[in-house]
Amino acid sequence: xxxxxxxxxxxxxxxxxxxxxxxxxxxxxxxxxxxxxxxxxxxxxxxxxxxxxxxxxxxxxxxxxxxxxxxxxxxxxxxxxxxxxxxxxxxxxxxxxxxxxxxxxxxxxxxxxxxxxxxxxxxxxxxxxxxxxxxxxxxxxxxxxxxxxxxxxxxxxxxxxxxxxxxxxxxxxxxxxxxxxxxxxxxxxxxxxxxxxxxxxxxxxxxxxxxxxxxxxxxxxxxxxxxxxxxxxxxxxxxxxxxxxxxxxxxxxxxxxxxxxxxxxxxxxxxxxxxxxxxxxxxxxxxxxxxxxxxxxxxxxxxxxxxxxxxxxxxxxxxxxxxxxxxxxxxxxxxxxxxxxxxxxxxxxxxxxxxxxxxxxxxxxxxxxxxxxxxxxxxxxxxxxxxxxxxxxx
Length: 394
Description:
single chain
């Protein structure tokens, strides 16, 4: 069985986990604050895309760093170091890509019991990293698609950090195609396997631990911003611009990222922008799913298929109405919950999602004045049957 079929089957087979969890809130978008742009052009290229593979992780350089939380995982726990200049805006495929895996344990928090698996001390967070590598891009590309090389030397310079969160029954490596595409455009991307929602979770993957995942993400930010020593994470930290960090995720990972960006229980102020693929606001730690209205300067990109059977499309409609920050909402007509986010090399919709998310982060993390116009142009080029876009608070 092919890996793509395996990944799709795994995610679809557990769709009921999220269906049962998702909010039924159907708050409608206020027309007075939103402006709709339908796709009208068919000429603009959305750039090269990549296929997804999970086998490459077999030979990934793996090291273990067992550490505790370096102070609070709440906002501001790791001071940002001043960087002289923002990283240059670059297209997908501009840089070769390296990858490594760093196996981390947050010793300050435990993992609850799950099914037949007992509670354990610590939270294991094996994390795959994609980063701009030294050398010639042609050495790590094929057919116009970004690829990655295990353990490749890191490229000089500092790059924004994107923390990517997988969906339930997923793993960070399942999104390899999308993540290495962003790395090839000048980002460091870290993608953990969360303790109880990943494919290999003890007791089986569950949504019940999602309330702990934003703190996991904050712990990873702490860790990958700490340049002290010669640990694998410290080596990655030396390539990161700590003042420009984004969060992105799919499904349960989007729920995690939305919590990290906007819910009072879980907000990490180091996050500058959030991209949510097929996500929703759910109660995480305090039983409340309402975004903090005081968060008005953390831009949000929502992407959702209007035929999603797992996380209802109306969840993003509601999120778009509730968030107070500038926001953009890309609708994918006829699309469901899996394919638009897991097959950038073979799916036009997934290639579009990969590109518009990059455009969004270029605007928010690299200060690209053309980022949003490129995002809108990519949607327009796809055509109204493939994608539309709304914005508010801009």
